[in-house]
Amino acid sequence: MYDVPSYVIALILALAMLASMWLGGAIGRRRHVTANGDSKSQANAVQGSLLGLLALLLGFTFSLSLGRYDQRSAAVVLEANAIGTAWLRTDLIGDERREEARTLLREYGAIRLESATVAASNQGERSRLLAEAEAVFGRLWRVAAAEAREMGNPVAMSFAASLNDMVDALATRDAAIDRHVPELVLILLFGTFILLGGVVGYSTWISNIRPGVPVYAMMILIVVLVFLIMDLDRPRRGLIAVDQSKLVATVTAMDLDR
């Protein structure tokens, strides 16, 4: 489902609810003649129960997708800060290794910034950039290890510690991209939405009433909310994208400090 654009899913969902409403209305028209007050009350009660269940599912799913979005945004800031800290601590290492460490950090930052432009569904490109970042980090770590062995002081160890924080931030950010709303939850949400359309069509036509503007307004609002949920759940596509400005600023500052 992740590979399908959000607007396509929202459009299919709207059409499915309209079809379900039409089918429910067709059944309701046939039952209108024989329906009594109790059957109409039952249909309205079921409609109200489904509306409550759908509201609960929408609230839960929206909160879940927004939480995932916040985690990804925090992960970007965390990694940018970790890279920036490692850059500042290159001032504390020896002159013979400082320029090499800075060159590697610039290369590492550029790779991590490039990875922000790759769609999360493009696993091949993501894996390639992750491997490149880990290779550059390995070279950085060898520089830090050589500095620590030679100098053996807290200053050298602090640079190594900043690199450790940097690779931890890489793993955190990469893992956050793969966290999505479980598809089972989305399927349950969509199923409830479609079933509600059928019940709304049935309960209105069984009372010999055409679905009015409020019914269609409710449907449009729910479709918009579903679109927002799906859009929030896609960190590198759609209208709502994770802000990368902190990482851009960090990489730009390193490039300017030559």
Taking the sheet with the most strands, its summary is: none
Low-confidence stretches: none
Question: Which overall shape is indicated by the principal axes computed on the Cα atoms?
Answer: rod-shaped
What percent of residues are in strands? under 5%
Number of strands: 0
Q: If you compute it from the alpha carbons, what radius of gyration comes out, rounded to the nearest whole angstrom?
A: 27 Å
Which class best fits the helix and strand makeup? Answer: mainly alpha
Mean pLDDT: 85
Figure out the total of helices.
Answer: 8
Q: Percentage of helical residues?
A: over 70%
State the separation between the terminal residues, measured CA to CA.
45 Å
Number of domains: 1
InterPro entries: DUF4239 (IPR025333)
Protein name: DUF4239 domain-containing protein
Transmembrane segments: 7-25, 45-66, 184-207, 213-230
Pfam families: Bestrophin-like
